[in-house]
Amino acid sequence: MPVRVESSAPTQISGADSWQSTPQACTLLSVGQAFSGTQNVSNNQKDEAWRVNVRIQGLDLDHGYLCGTMEALNVPMADTPVVTFWEGEIVDGKNYNFFTGKWQAAPEDDIRHWTKFPSFCPLMNQVEVDGGKSLDLSNYPCIFMRWKEQYFVNVGTDCGLTIAGFYYVCFSCSDGSISGFYYDPNSSPFQKLELKSTNEGRSGFSFSSYELQ
Amino acid sequence: MPTSASSAIPKPSSELVSRLTAADAAVKLKALRDIKNQIIGNRTKKLSFVKLGVVPHVAAILSSTSDPNILVQSAAVLGSFACGVDAGVSAVLDAGAFPRLLRLLADPDPKVVDAGARSLRMVYQSKLAPKYDFLQQENTKFLLSLLNSQNENVTGLGASIIVHSCDTIAEQKALYNGGVLEKLIDLLDGSLSQRDASLESIATIFKNNVEAIAKFMQPGREDCLSYIIELMKDRNPKTRLLACVCLIVIRNSSPCYLQDIGIKMKLIHSLLELLDNPGQVGDEASFVFSTLIAEKEELQKLAFEANAIDTLYNHLQKDQLSPRRFQGILLAFSHLCSKLESCRSRFLSLQVMNIVIDALQHESSDIRIAACTCLRSVSRSIKNLSAGYFMNETVVLPVVRLLHNPSNAVQVAALGAISNIVVDFSTKRSIFIECGGVKELVRLSKSMDLDIRLNALWALRNLMFLANNMYKSGIFMELTASLLASLVCDPEPSIQEHAMALVRNLIDGCEDSIEYAFAEDGIILNTICRQLQSISRDEIGVQGMHVLCNVASGNEFHKERLMKQLFPQGDDVIQSFVVKFLQSDNSQLRIAAVWVIINLSLPSSPRAPDRVTKLQNAGIVSQMKNMVNDPCLDVKLRVRTVLGQLMAFGDGIAL
């Protein structure tokens, strides 16, 4: 979701080799699944919260990759909902670890954000040693990710909004809820994203799928 | 009245025939030389003489004389007819010249032997040449005698026979057990042509044959491999290309060899440099490059780092590309862009797409197919699909037009690209629908050709993914419930799977969509439940159970209709496939089945208690309890969801 402060462009990182198995697929985090909730635009809880919808569009566990769109519904500066496309890195110890190594995020920034998630605490000691490379997260009930918005889908880059930062994200395999914290050195710290799995008015969960050739 | 040219068999002029059949050797010789001089390098003349029926007369001379000069000239003429023109090869073979040419190899005169070998090499350049049976021991001995010859054309002929005729593991085995491999290794030290012939033959014997390669790699033979590696730097471009071919075959067939990054980089750089060669070697280099990187992400990454995309693009921009070269470069692009987003991103930034889109309309079907393959690869980029990059008229119209192409292979290639392009997150599906794309896909989903039917259905399945109600309604009207039902029970398992996946997408989204499953007296749902009773592969069960899951996510009416499907005979007996899938070794199948139970037992549903009682009586609850520590985390968590929901029903449910 876009915020209102500018920042510099991210750099690239290559994946690290490791023996770990990738996280198991979680049906609540599969392509087509939708989530909705809010993002507090400031760490001050009294401030506005934007309504946010997220849709997963692509998932590639082998490469620790997922992507989708994020729609911010009541952005004060925008006439219409603002939709962005984001790409995610899944922290699997194989492709990515807990240390971001780019996007102006130092290990201390990483730890400061990851520790906001209660489910991260049991991993903390090992992460401080090696970024979590040696952790086996394949059966862990949470999936940690970084989501980085890549472009605006329905508005131009001159919309006065920025997508320079990225989100530290924790997905709960148990109930499909998502928590996240937006990080951008030039924005308000710890803007919190809270999303729940939605079923679009149905009395139950429905799943669709596509397969690329 | 004019008649078609083929309706009458033309006769050679009586003058030419009389000269070819003249008793006077000098006249005959002159006639042969005249023909040879006219047809060398002249395809039109060759075809014209073939049509005139000259070839049988020349072939006849081979068995009617022992004059070395006449034999040499006859063989040369026949070889020339066979060189590069399939109609000429056919004429030579039909005239019975092949065994006569073979006999020349035993002639005492070395010139006759040489002419016979040259001529036969020409024949063996064509796919029409007869297969040589290596499984007969005598034939292998004969082949060895050719390879042992001092004459380069004879050894070259031996190599050509191997390259043309050795296809199976058994044939490869017959050759290396018969000592052919050792001889070919010796020939690596021979002349330039022997070395090239040897490299090509060795590659043929090694292809997909781990045992043959292991023999080659025996201790003490390390020099051979090093020598071939050295040949990648040879002065002669063809030798460099063939050395690459040989090394790639070894790598691809036996992945334990040639794994160091240095060799990989050398292969990539050598092949990219060979593209500079203006002739056949440059044409083939991109095809060989494709065999190196196909399906290998690591090599694609190295090739990307070696600037392969830019290099190929530079060659693509040159004027007067041969069709073969154009095709090869497009295929190389498609392999490069098959897995890595970095490659696709670079490809798209160079505007290669304009060339690919033009190539969709090229007169050569090979190039049209290569363009579709390229488009298919690059459209695997979800980032660009999401941006609607491919869903525009410039791309969609020419590729949809190809669905009318008379060639099945072109249609299949176009459908492959369409399958990806229609995964549209940008709400621009109307472009595809308005140009008649859906009508074409539905038409082709009824094709008798399995590949066409499968790919058309695949595209429809992807088109239906997250489609809004208006599009769904339009697509469903074209498809009809009865066609969908018939695809669900198609004899081919892959069609069943995609048809069920299509239905799954059709009834996802807005709750009203579920009604499609009940159209025409529920023909689709009935057929799916019937098919699930006996599936030939798990993937069908996974898609089928997701259809049931999506139905079960609807309102009370939908849930109750599904319950009737699941309990066809009464209250206590559930369709056996439900329990079978819950107990499957396949976690995908288990999770899909568990989701059906979750949706049917949601505590907020008014009639959930009745359904839960039925599920309990049918043994589903006890099955769920058995799965509480399922090895798959997703299944385990969802089973706990079910058990948590059942708790809400209180004492009636024995947990």
TrEMBL record, chain A:
Organism of derivation: Cucurbita maxima (Pumpkin)
Family that this chain belongs to: Belongs to the GID4/VID24 family.
GO terms for biological process, alphabetical: negative regulation of gluconeogenesis; proteasome-mediated ubiquitin-dependent protein catabolic process; protein catabolic process in the vacuole; protein targeting to vacuole
Pfam families: Vac_ImportDeg (PF09783)
InterPro entries recorded: GID4/10-like
Protein name per the record: Glucose-induced degradation protein 4 homolog
Gene Ontology cellular component list: GID complex; vacuole
UniProtKB/TrEMBL annotation, chain B:
PROSITE patterns named in the record: ARM_REPEAT (PS50176)
ARM repeat boundaries on the chain: 436-463
Subcellular location per the Swiss-Prot or TrEMBL entry: Cytoplasm; Nucleus
Pfam family, one: Arm
Swiss-Prot/TrEMBL keywords: Cytoplasm, Nucleus, Repeat
Any one annotated GO CC term: GID complex
Gene Ontology annotations of biological process type: proteasome-mediated ubiquitin-dependent protein catabolic process
Name of the featured protein: Uncharacterized protein LOC111485402
Organism this protein belongs to: Cucurbita maxima (Pumpkin)
Lineage: Eukaryota, Viridiplantae, Streptophyta, Embryophyta, Tracheophyta
